[in-house]
Write a structure and sequence with these properties.
Largest sheet: 4 strands, antiparallel
Strand order of the largest sheet: 1-2-3-4
Length: 157
């Protein structure tokens, strides 16, 4: 598949792009529910020393950064506000790939905010090489940031 395929279809104005955003969000919510039901008090080894599922309710931010709850709320509100503004500017200027990246980050962040509000912490369960535990929403945030940066760098050429 060429880069033109992704530019054409995986953007925030094409139905395939919108569908991808919604589908990834739903997959995140479903995998978190499955993790709570199936992994709750045990570690499930998928590939020894590489991948395991381990349920953690992360009350911190960015992994192990422990901050007071008020600081976490302030950071999340600021982050979401910047994302909304950036998405609006991208939309206004017709930069649909960049908009897709910002929306992907927003969907991931909103899923994690939902976890904090309902469960008291973000539901993390994917443990890679015993170094980092994360979830699909975290992948959405990182992937969205990469897409937005790449789209901006393409615009500047």
């Amino acid at each position: 598949m060429s880069m033109n395929f992704f530019k054409t279809y995986f953007n925030a104005t094409h139905p395939l792009g919108v569908g991808a955003l919604v589908l990834i969000f739903v997959i995140d919510r479903l995998t978190k529910s499955l993790a709570m039901a199936a992994v709750s008090d045990k570690i499930v080894v998928v590939i020894p020393d590489v991948l395991q599922f381990e349920l953690v309710y992360n009350k911190n931010i960015i992994g192990l950064l422990a901050l007071p709850r008020v600081a976490i709320v302030a950071i999340v509100i600021t982050f979401l506000s910047v994302l909304v503004w950036s998405a609006w500017v991208s939309y206004r200027d017709g930069r649909v790939q960049e908009l897709f990246g910002f929306l992907l980050m927003m969907f991931g962040a909103l899923s994690n905010v939902f976890d904090r509000l309902v469960f008291g912490g973000v539901i993390d369960f994917i443990n890679v090489a015993s170094r980092s535990i994360f979830n699909i929403a975290d992948v959405m945030i990182v992937l969205g940031a990469l897409i937005a940066v790449l789209a901006q760098s393409q615009k500047e050429r």
